[in-house]
Design a protein that fits this description.
about 45% helix, 5 domains, 4-stranded antiparallel sheet, 18 strands, 19 helices
Length: about 575
């Protein structure tokens, strides 16, 4: 979310004049406007969309013509990038941390930056001198750092708080480029709405007070002593505003080494949210984490360009709660408004019937856009209250989270799925989470390798894969939001199909038998689709690794089919 730009892109002078083409870039007068048209931006702003505004959503991008699928809409360099600002407890307490120069894994205590003494992957890491990477905050860490802990492991982990570095980097922008800092501060922070919330209190403890105590207060003392100002703005309120800006606008960037970092992209964060978006984005790790937005499907003239700020396989209540809590708005898109979620029943509960009479229906919210709505069976007259639904889902959610975090065994996972099928629609998003883990356990865990699976388990695995893909094909019909998720299903499905065919041949079936050929064709189709959906995941380690597995499996299947 973004407020209006107010400074000339060329000289930084306050201005309300905007580029007539893209309406995003401000210029202070005719002279700079002429210079502007001699710059590359003249071509960049000739886009098939424009910046528009209405009372309902504020600013948004509107297609000014039909835009084909796969069209590149824009590319944008980040204002700032850095470690994730919301690390979980496990990530924060790990002695393996991201290098402050390049974000590669490094061991605390092995190598340090010679200037600020924060851990690095190697003494000559190229990111240490990069003004957009560690050089941005290194001086502040050195100037205000004070004594560094060396012996107590807990004290060391408490001192090197990587989740605070992105806020410090944002603050440091004012030292090297005040225009970038001002542009960043114009992004929406929802400061007033956040104040007093759990998120505000957590940010105050783990980021704001940490930075003030360890770096900014010592820096202020040094400024007073030497009579000069390093950071013109570094008060508590500004730190909280930056925390809010990151919470609302920061985008998670997956690195090829498997880590995730965050970045701020002032144009990218202006795309409107929709739970069924028409655009998607990628990051180029080789070009400074440049963000590129593309159309995920054909877009018609006068459509809004949309992306999604939440997970496509969460149920409606969870998506809307996340958006309301973290993004400060309530989604009313057509998927959220449909109690069946486009016929997937991703949030539906099984109707328990009444007085022992079995009901084959499912409970759905009467009004999906009302969080306090009662739920009603689609087959009988039974209704249940919202608080009963919320209590049930809360308990189930705790069980699912526990199973995933504790890496439940195959037996435990199957038992939990069987139990939850008593209460939930087979397509419920809790069950999809468990099934997606189970199909990967079948074939890869000790005692459950593909060739060790019973025939009925192979059939079970294939059925789960098919059922999950039916849901994904509805929620992501153009395969640009759930690419990794879908590709892993396709890979597991083909492995089970090929094992079924191999067993059929061992028991006397011929390669030309229709059932064997059908399995071969379905397996090859899965691999072809898996390869196709991974086209937008080549910037991630997971995508590259999975594609390599799919290509090897494709060669194997094609070789078998030739003989």
């Amino acid at each position: 979310m973004n407020t209006e730009a107010t400074r000339c892109a060329l000289c930084g002078v306050p201005s309300n004049l905007k580029c007539a083409g893209c309406k995003l870039v401000a210029y202070c007068g005719p002279v700079h406007q002429k210079k502007h048209w001699r710059m590359q931006h003249k071509n960049e702003c000739a886009k098939p969309y424009e910046l528009a505004r209405n009372e309902e959503v504020g600013r948004f991008f509107l297609a000014t013509e039909n835009i084909p699928k796969g069209t590149m809409l824009f590319s944008e360099a980040p204002l700032v990038i850095g470690p994730k600002w919301n690390l979980n407890e496990y990530e924060q307490r790990s002695s393996i941390v991201p290098c402050v120069g390049c974000f590669a894994d490094c061991q605390i205590g092995l190598h340090r930056c010679e200037t600020c003494h924060w851990p690095v992957c190697k003494p000559d890491c190229p990111g240490l001198s990069n003004a957009n990477l560690h050089a941005l905050e290194c001086g502040l860490l050195r100037l205000g750092g004070g004594p560094k802990p060396r012996d107590d492991p807990e004290a060391i982990l408490d001192y090197y708080r990587y989740d605070s570095l992105l806020v410090l980097k944002c603050l440091a922008l004012q030292v090297i480029d005040r225009n970038r800092f001002d542009q960043m501060m114009q992004l929406e922070s929802h400061y007033a709405a956040r104040k007093g919330t759990q998120f505000y209190q957590e940010a105050d403890k783990r980021i704001v007070q940490y930075l003030l105590k360890n770096f900014l207060n010592p820096l202020k003392a040094l400024e007073e002593k030497e009579g000069k100002t390093v950071l013109p703005v570094c008060d508590e309120k500004t730190l909280h505003k930056i925390s809010g800006i990151l919470e609302v606008n920061a985008m998670v960037i997956p690195l090829t080494n498997g880590r995730e970092i965050c970045g701020l992209y002032p144009i990218g964060c202006m795309l409107e949210h929709c739970c069924m978006p028409n655009c998607h984005y990628t990051f180029n790790c080789d070009k400074g984490m440049k963000l590129t937005f593309k159309t995920g499907r054909d877009i018609e003239k006068n459509e809004h360009l949309t992306t999604t700020y939440t997970h496509s396989l969460w149920g409606t209540q969870k998506r809307r709660e996340h958006l309301r809590t973290n993004k400060y708005f309530t989604c009313t898109c057509y998927r959220c408004a449909d109690p069946t979620e486009l016929g997937t029943y991703l949030s539906a509960l099984k109707c328990m019937g009444i007085d022992g009479n079995i009901c084959c229906g499912f409970q759905l919210p009467v009004d999906a856009l009302d969080d306090n709505s009662d739920w009603k069976c689609n087959e009988c007259a039974i209704q249940i209250q919202a608080d009963q639904v919320n209590f049930l889902l809360s308990k189930i959610g705790e069980e699912v989270d526990s199973a995933m975090e504790q890496k439940a065994s195959v037996r435990q996972m199957r038992d939990l799925i069987s139990k939850l099928l008593t209460f939930l629609h087979p397509n419920h998003y809790f069950l999809l989470t468990l099934k997606h883990s189970l199909i990967q356990m079948y074939g890869h865990m000790t005692g459950f390798l593909t060739h060790q699976l019973l025939d009925r388990v192979l059939v079970e695995k294939i059925t789960m894969c098919r059922d999950m893909m039916k849901v994904i094909d509805i929620l992501d019909p153009d395969s640009f939001r759930l690419s990794l998720y879908a590709a892993s299903i396709f890979y597991e499905q083909q492995s089970a199909l090929m094992e079924m065919s191999a067993r059929a041949l061992q028991t006397g079936s011929l390669p030309t038998d229709s059932s064997v050929q059908q399995n071969y064709n379905e397996a090859l189709h899965c691999l072809m689709r898996g390869k196709q959906v991974l086209e937008n995941e080549m910037g991630t380690q997971q995508g590259k690794k999975l594609l390599e597995q799919i290509l090897k499996a494709t060669e194997r299947v094609e070789r078998i089919m030739r003989f």
